[in-house]
Each structure stands twice: as structure tokens, then as C-alpha cells.
Amino acid sequence: MATPTFIDSNSHMDKLTSEIFSILENKFLFGYDNNNTNNINSPPTKDTVAVPMEELKSGRHVTGKVRILSIDGGGATDGALAATSIVHLESFLRRKSGVQDARISDFFDVVTGSGVGGVLAALLFTRGKDGQPLFTAADALRLVAEKGNKMSRVSKQGIFRRVFGSPATGGKIFRRTFGDLTLKDTFKAVLIPCYDLTTGAPFVFSRADAVEMDGCDFKMSDVCAATVAGGPVETVSVDRRTRISAVTGELAMNNPTAMAITHVLNNKQEFPFCNGVEDLLVVSLGNGEPGYGVAGNQTPSRTALVKIVGETVSDTVDQAVSMAFGQSRASNYGRIQGNKGFVDSNKGKEQNVLKLAEQMLRRMNVESVLFQGKKCNKTNLDKLELFAEEIVKETERRKLNILPTVVLRQTTTSSSPRTSSATTLSVTSSN
């Protein structure tokens, strides 16, 4: 018969007591998960990382929230509303942070954009020769205004479709803007989708893919041409090994927010401690509702139908993402979206799109609630300012973080399988 073993040492009891209280404290602070602590092969989490007790008692945060900026494809104004929103957001961030020369890229960890939204993302998050982003928010808006002012009227195809619609014209403009810069030359995690006709599936240009596989690195000029392409554009990787036949990203995912969230939650190499929506801070910028009215029984054009479908899908994505955030959607998820067309019914003609974008930002913000319709609360500008404040708070909190929130991978020259990204949805083809 086994003799019972009695703990007769105060040191053993102290150790057991310390372990019990450590478990209770971890469960209270971080949500203790007994299964994770024993799985050495699982990605590191806030629970499995040993944090010194003195660090916890100091009031320092373990890690922060991943900040995502998502920009829709072109709506009725082809980028004017999103670009104007970014200008105001950058202004709010500068004022609230006290850094007057700060850029929008300083305050976000991930940027995703579709169509013209992808062009804006590339302009704001690509590193120039001076080490700074190629464009400020005001520069990007000025690009929209200058191209729009060259036309007396805004066509139904929109500003960017008229200016960048031809692959040859668009390619020249983008090559002049980006030169030989590639996805590897971006500051943060960049995700820009298009639709690949070769495979019949979405294709996402991703910095995470580019730094791990040369076959996934593309010139930024080609990325932008692909995501706004009105017709098939052959797009080839820098090493010439991957070829796709690209059309606009608006067809693949007009609202790329869900794709960005999926990328972050599955990319444990670069976002090791992001385990759910509570670890995210998302700002999603819409581009207004379609400005295509159909009189009587007139059949909408194909272009109008694509726009309508794209905006409908964007609204559905917004509702689903908003519901996923649950009670934290008021503080962790913000959506800026127009709720009326951009045509002045009193005058019966289109006005200056940038002026109308400013007007749209001063209208009530529309929040989509799944199965419950839409509701209006603050103005779009008020909501932008609210989230600018949340982003600055997160930036300040990171100064006290014990662990890094984001660990961006550096450039490599490898043909090994990707481990940091779950974004390229189509199968690449090689020569």
C-alpha cells in the first residue's frame, strides 16, 4: 500500500500557492486557456508567454490592438469620398497626437484597398526615395482633383475609370508615379486585390507574400493597374515566374475589410498575439452609393449593374463585420459610408465631386445592422474624429507594451512555401 506523501515544507506550499494565484491572475487578465499552455507547437499567445510579475504589477500592457485601414473600390465618385475622409483622418491624427508632420501610415499596421482604394493605399504606404511615403493624404486627394478637373463633366464611369481606364494610359501614369518600387518597398502590411481571369478567382497582392516568395513580388505600378483594370491586364511578377490576367479589384471584393481581418487573424508570424476581433481596431472607408438612376423600365447598363452589385456586397460585408465585433463595434470598428447619391436633384446635374464628398462627410453616418436595417447616429466627420482619438490612444498605449503587437517580416529571397500569409486566393501560374 502506497504511503501518502504529506507536504511538510513551507517552501513547497508557497510555490503551490504562487502557481494557483498566477493561474487565477492570468485568467482574470488575459483569459487563461489550459490547452494552450501545454501546446509548444501552437503560436505564442498572451497566455503562453511568460511575463514577469513585476511587469504585470507595473500596470504596463502586454500587447496592443492591430490597426487596420480598409478602403473600398470606387463608388459614384471613384475615390473622392475615401480620399477626402483620409485627409480629415490624417488631420485629426496630427492634431490629437501633437505630431504636425505625421503621415497616415504612422498610425496603421495594415492597409487594404480595392480598385481606386488600392491605388490610394499604394500611394500612402509605399516608401519613396527620401524614406517617406510617396504621397501625403492631401497629395492623394489633389491627384483625384487634378485628374477630375481635366473633364468638364464626370462620366458614369467615374474619374479614375476615365483617367486610368485604358491599360496603356494607366500603366504610364503608374510607372511615372512608382518607378521600379515593388510590394517589398511598402511600410506596413499591404493587401490589394484584383480578379484573376486565368484561374477564375480573386488574387491578393500582399507584402507578406512578397517578402517570402520572389514569385509573389510585383511592381507597385502593375499592382495599381491591375486593381483598377476595366479589362484584362497581364500582370507579371518581378522575377517573371507568376502571371495573372487581372481585372478590377472591385469585382473580386469591393469592400476588402473581411479579407484584411482574415489575413491578420491567420498571420501568426507577423501578428502573433492577435486572437480575435477584440484585438483589432478597424477603420473602413466606403466610397458612396452608386450614382446610377434608372428611369421607368429602362434596363441598367452592365457598368451600372457591376457598381450596384459591388456596393450591395460592400454593405453586406459591413453588416457581417459589424456584427462580428459585437459589443465592441462602437469602439473597435468604424465605417464611413455615404447614404445618398451625389447628384443634386434641384439642379439636375452632377456637382464638383470633391465638394460633394465634403458634404457627404457632414451628413449623418449610417450604421448597418444585420437583419435590422440601417440607423443614423453621428455625422461621418464626428465618427472619423472619434476613431482618430482611439487610434492615438492605442499608439500611446504601445509605448508601455511589454510585447510587440506587430512583427513585420523583412525581405528574403526564398521560394519556400509561405508561412505568413493567407491572402493569395488564386493559384499562381509559373513559366
In short:
Helices cover 40% and strands 14% of the residues.
Could you walk me through the main structural features you see in this protein, from its secondary elements to its overall organization?
- With about 425 residues, the chain is an alpha/beta fold.
- About 40% of the residues lie in helices and about 15% in strands.
- It has helices spanning about 10-30, 35, 55, 80-95, 115-125, 135-150, 160-165, 165-180, 205-210, 220-225, 250-255, 255-265, 300-325, 330, 355-360, 380-395; strands at about 65-70, 110-115, 190-195, 200-205, 235, 245, 280-285, 335, 345, 350, 365-370, 375-380.
- The strands form three sheets. Strands 1, 2, 3, 4, 5, 6, 7 and 8 form an eight-stranded mixed beta sheet that branches.
- A hairpin with a 4-residue loop joins strand 9 (about 345) and strand 10.
- It is globular.
- The number of strands is 12
Roughly how many Å is the radius of gyration?
Answer: 24 Å
What quaternary form is this? single chain
The average pLDDT score comes to 76
Order of helices and strands: HHHEHEHHHHEEHHEEHHEHHEEEHEEH
Return the structural class: alpha/beta
Stretches where pLDDT is under 50 for at least 5 consecutive residues are 1-9, 27-42, 55-59, 148-169, 341-350, 425-431
Can you tell me the overall shape?
Answer: globular
Helix content: 40-55%
